[in-house]
Amino acid sequence: MDKPSIKIGILGLGTVGSGVVEVLNKNGSDIEKKVGRKIEIKDILVRDISKKRKTEVPQHLLTTNPDDILENPEIDIVVEVMGTIDLARQYILKAFENKKSVVTANKDLIALHGKELFEAAEKAGRDLLFEASVAGGIPIIRPLKECLSGNRFTRIMGIINGTTNYILTKMSRDKMEFDDALAEAQRLGYAEADPASDIEGLDAARKIAILASIAFNSRVTYEDVYVEGITKINSYDIRYAEELGYAVKLLGIAKEADGELDVRVHPVFIPKSHALAAVSDEFNAIFVEGDAVGEAMFYGKGAGKLPTASAVVGDIISAARNLSFGMPGRVGCTCFYSKKIKPIQEIESKYYLRLLVEDRPGVLASIAGVFGNSNVSIASVIQKRIEKDMAEIVLVTHTVKEANLRDALKIIEGLTIVGNIGNVIRVEGSDT
Amino acid sequence: MDKPSIKIGILGLGTVGSGVVEVLNKNGSDIEKKVGRKIEIKDILVRDISKKRKTEVPQHLLTTNPDDILENPEIDIVVEVMGTIDLARQYILKAFENKKSVVTANKDLIALHGKELFEAAEKAGRDLLFEASVAGGIPIIRPLKECLSGNRFTRIMGIINGTTNYILTKMSRDKMEFDDALAEAQRLGYAEADPASDIEGLDAARKIAILASIAFNSRVTYEDVYVEGITKINSYDIRYAEELGYAVKLLGIAKEADGELDVRVHPVFIPKSHALAAVSDEFNAIFVEGDAVGEAMFYGKGAGKLPTASAVVGDIISAARNLSFGMPGRVGCTCFYSKKIKPIQEIESKYYLRLLVEDRPGVLASIAGVFGNSNVSIASVIQKRIEKDMAEIVLVTHTVKEANLRDALKIIEGLTIVGNIGNVIRVEGSDT
């Protein structure tokens, strides 16, 4: 192999950065054969050169000056694994100005500034690759942009946050309450000290924005996504889900109907027979529906040092092949439409509802009457006496408009026979 | 879009060919935006121009002369969806001679003549893409060659034959016997009138040969694969699997250890907790283990008109992008090693064994003694009296060398206390 090596600069040497260095070191000779050229790490941007590190890196590769990478004419590919939004954005834009291809694992950045970055990439005629930004090691972005690109997609549903899937698995399998499951996730390092971004659904919202943009060829940003987290799910909901034949999962969902997009993150009841229902613990999976492929699912670890590095290195190899063939920018931005985002009130769904009501004759009839007046049709009801004078009613609706359900709930909340509305959870993935 | 269109010629207008035409017609305007150039069907090779067809195709596109496609300088990409081996090989070689990129769905051809075809593609500097040859619509070849190409793979296990998965699902879920399940699969069109290629494992063998070649960067052909079908599985095996916590699946398996490959197709017991165990009916799934990504799985429909067309059209788009950028041949053959194939006697596995023996004291001790002498260590035993004087013993071994197990079975078969060896099935996917 006498061709010159492809030289990369890495911004950041945290968990993912160290993983990238390890994978390139370990599998470098095979990667060289696959690409036809050696991939050589030229510089790594760190905050503190003297810091002790677990991954062995020759000292002379480390720098604290980003321009050693961004302005270095020798460097072909910039690998951004430092996180942050503003600084990363600024560095990546500079990399494109200097005609470098860019690989990033930064979902926050892509979900927020994707448009600007893709335009800069296109202007530079270089690649912007970001497979690692969604679901870590699971190949999903390239499959959507290439393998499945002959499809018109109708739906994407993903378990794209490992922390919440771990918590929900614990609540269901080990009958834990939310707080205890969260505490255990924190103890095991699956949840951060400040878990808000995970449990409130914000992390999943960034990822579904990215997936929706690719699948529906229309830019969806973080702000476009309707979000509910899992903090209101309790053991009653888990138990009723079980009884009704469902699993409880936090899903990122994106659908297209009549040219409008419906993009959201919230807990769902999903039938146990659905492929996503069996995805447990910290695993992720993305379920895709296309008009040609039908149903397909991609499953694996959505986070972690080496799984994420796997995706980053796959992108480095792809960018290197493109440079080798003199054709970077081969697959650019594919958001050539500008589709309207449907407000949550306009979506249609089935719903699971749990209500605490007075336990006396006629109560169910009153409630059913309110739903009927709002055009909310009920598919099934379980009524259970739980304590003296009060009963819990669990309802599952047919597919109805969310606005109609909300209208009905406002009236039901005001009824004197109703103690409280325990929870309302959308039902997804069933056929009717 | 003023760039000239990319022109394709399609060899064959059977099920898959019609699907390709339908998908290109239906989603053509989006595909044009994604590629930046229109994809235009120029000619389609058929056997009988006057035949009535379900898919509407303008009469002037049809030809019975392959050279209208292979020798037509206007045509950029040849799409081979006609099947057969010799004729397809000859046409594809001619297409490369005439500097055309080739997309094929022909697993028999790739599994048998892959090497020759890749060399011809490389010589021509053109693409040979074959995503549809394994697991229909499921993206697996491009993910292995690109997204996951930073990994060193340790194992691939796939449910890659829908017919046998349907039959095994029926046997397990509906307690059917093999013959009845096969008859039902034939009635529903999941199995062919002559089902040998599916139920004997030959179809799966071709697919695992292709996957192993890609994952381990070493050419594996159909002849290298050790094959057992599912015809010997009966309801006893299914019932014992259930009792022991396993599902029965026909898997294509490829592993690398110490630089040697172990490639085989046979029924397995796989723990119910394994992701593959839940893959039911006619669905396919491919489970991959890499040193960076860890475990990943790809799930979907492995056959059918539109799922297969989805993969073919994805490849057409990829080939078109490469031509557009003036870089066909971007990812060529990656079999740069020549690894030894391990004979089946040398593999290591756990085994499930079902033996009919005399029901009297000391029998189990004798059998256990034979296994012990052959270094076969037993993990668990279930003994059941089934009729007067005869009992069924079900054993699961620890991981042992296949040669040792075969030695032991030869001796056990000759013992007067043993009625017969009911079945021997390998156990896969468990940790210990």
Would you tell me the overall average pLDDT of chain A? 95
Shape of chain A: elongated
State the distance separating the first and last CA atoms of chain A. 58 Å
Oligomer: homodimer
CATH topology of the largest domain in chain A, what is it called? Dihydrodipicolinate Reductase, domain 2
The total count of helices of chain A amounts to 13
Largest sheet descriptor of chain A: 12 strands, mixed
Residues in helices of chain A, as a percent range: 25-40%
Spans of chain A with pLDDT under 50 lasting ≥5 residues?
none
Give the strand content of chain A.
25-35%
The CATH H-level homologous superfamily of the largest domain in chain A: Dihydrodipicolinate Reductase, domain 2
Tell me the CATH architecture of the largest domain in chain A.
2-Layer Sandwich
The number of strands of chain A is: 18
CA-based gyration radius of chain A: 24 Å
Concise description?
Chain A has 432 residues and is α/β, with parallel strands linked by helices. Chain A contains 13 helices and 18 strands. In chain A, strands 7, 8, 9, 10, 11, 12, 13, 14, 15, 16, 17 and 18 form a 12-stranded mixed sheet that branches. Chain A has a 6-stranded parallel sheet with strand order 3-2-1-4-5-6, with helices on both faces.
